[in-house]
Amino acid sequence: MQKVNFPIEIIIHDDASTDGTADIIRKYESEHPGLIKGIYQTENQYSQKKGIWKNFIYPRALGKYCADCEGDDYWCDSGKLQKQVDFLESHPDYGLCYGQAKQFVQEKKMFSTIRGKDYISFENYLLHSNCIPTLTVCYRKELLLQYLQEKESFNQSWKMGDYPQWLWFSVHSKLKFFPEIFGVYRILNNSAAHSTDIEKQISFHVSGRNCANFFSKRYLNKELPPFEEHHERARLYSTRLHDRKKAYEEYKLIPHKNSKYKILAALHSNPVTFLLLRIYYSLRYKQ
Question: Are the beta carbons of 189 and 109 closer than 8 angstroms?
Fold first, then answer.
């Protein structure tokens, strides 16, 4: 649907799927030669822990700019690429621009909230959750190649690929935020970032915190406050599983509880106050 005044290529990687996706890609590729470019695997690469973007997609990209859109998401603004490329062309000191995305909860078949806000600064970005929806980005490929080269020295295995990349970009260039909805981000029950398994979610959150701490020490020379695992686990029990008793037990395990956690534990001890807390969590975390 994109309306642009410059050439583009759409690179689609199919990781040996068994549901007929490859045939659909081949059909589009034959109907739009030169525009649609398929990459077809005979053996699943992700299960072999091979980086899909780094090893297969980025080496094929010919353009000056890259824009990502993972398979369960989609763009909804036909002018997305034109707006972003026009801005980057006229602002050489900016390396990446992004916008907002509507969240679609697949299980409920309904839209929930809007993701994406101004990152403000590198330090602010570190201290808060990832505010850059990956499906809305457009960035300079030359910066991407520099990042991939430097990443080799990180020797880290984080559970997410986008967050460290955008953190690195925010250190080495300016970022532009468009307060416009560029796409739709689909929330699935068993994705890496939205698993129904609390342990997997905690592991994902811990990985994100480790990533932020790595960048804080590398570029600001300071350590972030420790990750409050029991607090996060209790919050997830409250919002994801609505399990008051388990959340209460987790809050009681928090070492050196300050008044904040004592109040939260007390709120979980009573069904009525727990309901009020859940309403607060649903508004804050949109869960």
Answer: no
Alpha-carbon span 143 to 149, nearest angstrom: 10
Domains of the chain and any CATH numbers: 1-61 (no CATH), 64-201 (3.90.550.10), 229-285 (no CATH)
Continuous segment of H or E residues that includes residue 26: helix 21-31
Q: How far is CA 142 from CA 35, 85, 133, 189, 246, in A?
A: 22, 14, 21, 35, 48
Q: 129 CB contacts (<8 Å, ≥6 apart)? A: 208
Residue reference for tokens 């996060």: 232
Beta strands 74-75; 174-187: pairing state: antiparallel
* pLDDT tens column, 235-259: 888 877 788 888 888 888 887 777 8
The pTM of this model reads 0.85
